[in-house]
Design goal:
The chain is an alpha/beta fold. 47% of the residues lie in helices and 15% in strands. The structure holds adenine (ADE) and zinc ion. The site of zinc ion (ZN) has 6 residues, from strand 1.
Length: 336
């Protein structure tokens, strides 16, 4: 990130487990008496070379082993919020993967209470409003997702939405129709990863069968002009993660990222960091990377920030507050 003052923005696609920096992983491993198969944080960092989504997920799930106590989850979230504030984030909707923890014997309550310790004081400490999105692992059976939703019942007051992540290809949204209906009945908002590695048809399925309001990633929509027309007409927000797409080889180089084409098509695009510890940058690094590699103008970056507030699951009052901050005259010219 340069010294340039970052635009105020919302982050809508961020996996809290993907913010685990190597140094914190080592500190938590030591606190919990866990051996990591790396000698130093730098040696771990050098393992962050991925050939596709699965090669990343293998390391991402393996490193969750260091997260055991409420304090661990609180420390993880606090470290993210501190960085997010420096990147101009004013509102964050944060994914967590309960099944990555319950599978290791860590109760979902430990996860939610720990994260909430940090989130509950985030407005006061960092000026960042927050929400949690419970994400189901799509490569596990649908029954496991239903069981997870039941386990989450005591904590639903702290959870605003459900999502769907992990290995995409071969695990179409249709598999989760029942659990999404149950989540909706419980009053939760709905999102899903679709069209990251998977085909455009998964995006349509997520809309038609799951009833999602936003699509996470969605970059492969461009392969289907009819789908693009629909996403534009319905102004379905897409939470795009450019540095992630390059690191997971969904896009060869940032210079070839389809985001400009997506804006040109009139899609409601937002820019997010996905798993910033693993992908070489937090959210403002994604904004600046787009500007550097693709020549996006300041006005285009401002439009992306505005879109992030339009796509956020906030009430009218908070949305107006966020938008006003983006339009405040002190943002431009001398102080900007
Ligand atoms: N889990 C964490 N990051 C993810 C991504 N980019 N796609 C699918 N599952 C994920
Ligand atoms: Zn993601």
């Amino acid at each position: 990130m340069s010294s340039h003052h970052p635009l105020p923005k919302a982050e809508l696609h961020l996996h809290i487990e993907g913010t685990l920096e190597p140094e914190l992983a080592f500190a938590l491993a030591e606190r919990n008496g866990i051996d990591l198969p790396y000698a130093t944080p730098d040696e771990l960092r050098s393992a962050y070379a991925f050939s596709d989504l699965q090669s990343f997920l293998d390391l991402y799930y393996r490193l969750t082993a260091v997260l055991r106590t409420e304090q661990d989850f609180a420390d993880l979230a606090e470290a993210y919020l501190e960085r997010a504030a420096a990147h101009g984030v004013r509102h964050a909707e944060i994914f967590f993967d309960p099944q990555a923890h319950t599978a290791r014997g860590v109760d979902i309550g430990t996860v939610v209470r720990g994260l909430s310790q940090a989130l509950d004081r985030s407005e006061e400490r960092h000026g960042i409003s927050t929400q949690l999105i419970l994400s189901f692992l799509r490569d596990l059976p649908a029954e496991d997702a239903l069981k997870t939703l039941v386990e989450a019942e005591p904590y639903l007051h702290r959870i605003s939405a459900v999502g769907l992540d992990s290995a995409e290809v071969g695990h179409p949204p249709a598999k989760f129709t029942q659990v999404y209906a149950a989540a909706k009945a419980a009053g939760l908002r709905l999102v899903a990863h679709a069209g990251e590695e998977g085909p455009p048809s998964y995006i349509s399925e997520a809309l038609d069968l799951l009833g999602v309001e936003r699509i996470d990633h969605g970059i492969r929509c461009l392969e289907d002009p009819e789908l693009v027309a629909r996403l534009v007409a319905e102004q379905i927000p897409l939470t795009v993660c450019p540095l992630s797409n390059v690191r997971l080889r969904c896009v060869d180089r940032l210079e070839e990222h389809p985001l400009p084409a997506m804006l040109e098509a009139g899609l409601l695009v937002t820019v997010n960091s996905d798993d910033p510890s693993y992908f070489g940058g937090y959210v403002e690094d994604n904004y600046q990377g787009l500007q550097r590699a693709l020549g996006l103008t300041d006005d285009q970056l401002r439009l992306l920030a505005r879109n992030s507030f339009l796509a956020a699951f906030v009430d009218d009052e908070r949305r107006a507050e966020l938008l006003a901050e983006l339009d405040a005259p002190s943002r431009s010219s001398i102080l900007g």
